[in-house]
């Protein structure tokens, strides 16, 4: 795979993410300069403007695949990983509808969107749908489990897109990184994290991108980013069909026992040297398009010290 700039990659993901979003009150917002979001909506016999948040998400996914392929020349496997991570995030920061799993969205907004039948790069390339299908095994994992990737991806998303800010507050950044590590540990222990599984590959992508991010911030004198543990996937079940009939699918799909959210044990501090009045605009600038309750709580409590957090 050709080398690519990880900072530029996340910056491009951010640009596409800004094509549309929900306001904090639940209204769909499409900035005037983001009309491109309507380009890849072709359902039934009609091709035109996307109808609502989920058709825009489907169109945005094609924009993302095309941009990362054209600009960063990612291989199809890596393309599909970033596409799925962004899709998980985009579906979990809105309030209109919660899908039971990604397959519900796939069947309604990918299979039925004729634009997914187009090839991404000429005659010898895969179609957009075929690229997404590389991660088809993830589609049936219930939303409670697959949405665990939401917060770690968002944190990478935010930290990469602020890495070149004129003023870098290392205390805030390292607190954010600690939340990433806590969430990473939770996913690492998940029963879906089986060696060579697609779930495990998504976790590996998060790990690689975090370690690159840590080096970037270390070079900017932010040296308090914690290390993440080694990925420890569960062993694949024995391939003896008599002993393990049906167990693989059960392990991949069954909801794991409820665990206490790691966010309850995270301790953060208010950014030194900033008054409440100066922090509020920063907080609003980050949280303006986030309607996921857990994620919004984490962002809020990073800025406003809460002894219970």
UniProtKB/TrEMBL annotation:
Pfam families assigned: Cir_Bir_Yir
Region annotation Disordered: where it falls in the sequence: 227-247
Keywords: Membrane, Transmembrane, Transmembrane helix
Keyword hit for Transmembrane: yes
Keyword Transmembrane helix among record annotations: yes
Transmembrane segments: 270-288
InterPro entries xrefs: Yir_bir_cir
Protein's name according to its UniProt entry: CIR protein PIR protein
Organism phylogeny: Eukaryota, Sar, Alveolata, Apicomplexa, Aconoidasida
